[in-house]
Each structure stands twice: as structure tokens, then as C-alpha cells.
Amino acid sequence: MAxxxxxxxxxxxxxxxxxxxxxMTALWSVMAGIITPEPTSGCKPHAWRYDTVRExxxxxxxxxxxxxxxxxxxxxxxxxxxxxxxxxxxxxAGVQLVMPGEVAPAHRHSQSALRFVLESAGGETxxxxxxxxxxxxxxxxxxxxxxxxxxxDTQDPVLWLDVLDxxxxxxxxxxxxxxxxxxxxxxxxxxxxxxxxYGANMLPLxxxxxxxxSPIFNYPYDRSREALERMKAAREWDPCHxxxxxxxxxxxxxxxxxxxGTCLQLLPKGMKTAPYKSTDATGFVPVEGRGRSWVNxxxxxxGPRDVFVVPSWHEVVHEPEGEAVLFAFSDRPIQEKLxxxxxxxxNA
Length: 348
Ligand code: GTQ
Hints:
Elements: H1 10-19, H2 27-34, E1 46-48, H3 50-61, H4 66-69, E2 73-75, E3 92-98, E4 103-109, E5 113-119, E6 121-127, E7 130-135, E8 139-142, E9 148-151, E10 158-164, H5 166-171, E11 177-179, H6 193-198, E12 218-219, H7 221-232, E13 243-246, E14 261-267, E15 276-278, E16 282-288, E17 291-295, E18 298-302, E19 307-310, E20 316-320, E21 324-330, H8 332-337, E22 343-345
Antiparallel strand pairs: 1-19, 2-3, 3-10, 4-9, 4-11, 5-8, 5-10, 6-7, 6-9, 8-12, 13-14, 14-21, 15-22, 16-19, 16-21, 17-18, 17-20
């Protein structure tokens, strides 16, 4: 049951007006709006088409270089949250373009970032002295306060989806950022070092974790996809998710990033998922296949590289045309740690 707002009388109005200059407000006049019986998100269901985003980014590349822009990104702004640089209430997302020969200069900030690679024949990102080569579907992490720069020595444009915890850092007023003063940091770690050290179901003996983020910073798509492909044979479909796997930090089994939870999900041919809702507004990026989803009954059609959003506590049903693979991201790791995460499965 929702809290009721007591009716206003002239005496009560006069009282509210009298406390207003003292920077006070009566709880009973606002309580129903701030402690709601269910989430009341301003975030709206929406899909961004890759073709449109890509076309506008290529247009932008004639107007500004990656270097001048610092990062040439078009922010995906939720239509219910315009002007706030948010794709959901708690997360920022944008699509970044690096043209052949360009660099996005080295900098670092308090915000954590993930890159989900949408188009790349070998774009490069350097994190803390180690380079990684980016291929379609790779999930790349830039942990908070680590130097990072991006480059493209290929003949073709390189594009990826950025997801950052910008609104969360903003909420805590905890943002710091600085440029390195050089375009590219020194590459002093051999390529593939992190994956070898931490991504082979082993850890260097005596390894002690130094940050809450996973020490693996590229989870290559071919490996993640192969796991799903092999698991398909078990036919253990979750009615709401098909086959959904969580990217983990191998040091402690937690999510790969402290603020953003990421998953890779396979929806088998012919499946229509059971209705599902959760408190973590979720962004989806179809990697393979096409399909449609209903979000509180609103139909969203999708294909590879599109991005769509299911707001908090909105019921979602997915229906792929054939087999489909989706990348998903949300703020679930934080909600779980705060005891806030809730989900409802089926028609409950
Ligand atoms: O690549 O470092 O989309 O600093 C927004 C801010 C990307 C980045 C964004 C950033 C970056």
C-alpha cells in the first residue's frame, strides 16, 4: 500500500511556507513520492539502432578528431532522462569511434569503464601499460584510476560501446580526473600478460588483490562464446534467461567490475522467455541474431550491435527469431552488496 499524502489546509500551507525559508520541509507532504511501494523509474524502455549511431559518428569524424574531443563519443541518452548523460538512472553509455591512425589520449579518472567491441579489425586499448587488441564482442575493462589510451592502426573505423559508472560517481561527489600529458602511455607489459596470469584458472601463488576490479582486462568473445556453445548441449535452459553467464573476477568470484555487472546470454531458437523483472535496469547489446522483446508490453525489435534498455522493475520477455546471443550490463553488483537487489520471475 502506498503512503497517503495528507490533504492541505490553509493552516498547513502557511506552516509549510513558514519553514521553507529555514530550509526545512514536512516529511508527510513529500513521503509518498520518496518512499514508494515499488520503483517508479524515470528511465524508459528504448532501443538505439547501430546503423544510425554509426552514421552519426562517421559524420562527427569530419567535425572533430579523437584527440581534440579527448574521446569521440555519442552518448546514448535515455529518453526519460535527457540532458543527464545516462542510459539508465545509474549508468552512462555511449558509442566511441576511433578512425584509422587516430589516438584517444592517455588519461585516468575515478569512473570505471567497460568497452564492448562493436566493430574492430584490431583496434587497441592500453590499460596500465598493457595493450589489448580488440575484436568484435570482446568485453574490455578499464578499472578506476588506471591510465588508458586507445588507438587504431587498422584501415577501418573502430567502434565500441562504453559503459561507465559516471552517475554513481556523480552521486557520491567523488570524481577525479587527469590527463597524462602524452597521447600514448609506455607499453611496458607484454600483450596477453593479464589473460595468461589470471585467465587460465590459475593465479600466481601469493597473488594479493589490489583493486576491486578483475585483473583480467579483456574477456575475448571467442572464449566466452565457446563456453556457451559447449553448454548448449546440456539444454539447461532458464525459463527467464535461456543460458545466462556472468563475467567474473577470478580472484574472488565476484562480478568482473565492482559497479557494473556484465553477462553473456544465449537464447535458443524457438524460445520465448518467461516474464522477468528485477530492480537492476539492464542494457542489452545483441551480438548475434535478431529478435524482439516486450518491456511492460512495449515491443522492441533488435539486431546485432543495437543497444536497448529495460528499466528497473519493468517486465521483460525476449523472443529471438533464431538463436541469439546478447551482452547485458546493469548496476546489480552494487544493489546486491547493499541488499537492494530484487527480482520476480514468471507471472508473479
Ligand atoms: O574512453 O576513457 O565514453 O573517459 C566517456 C569518458 C569514454 C574513455 C567515455 C571516457 C571514456
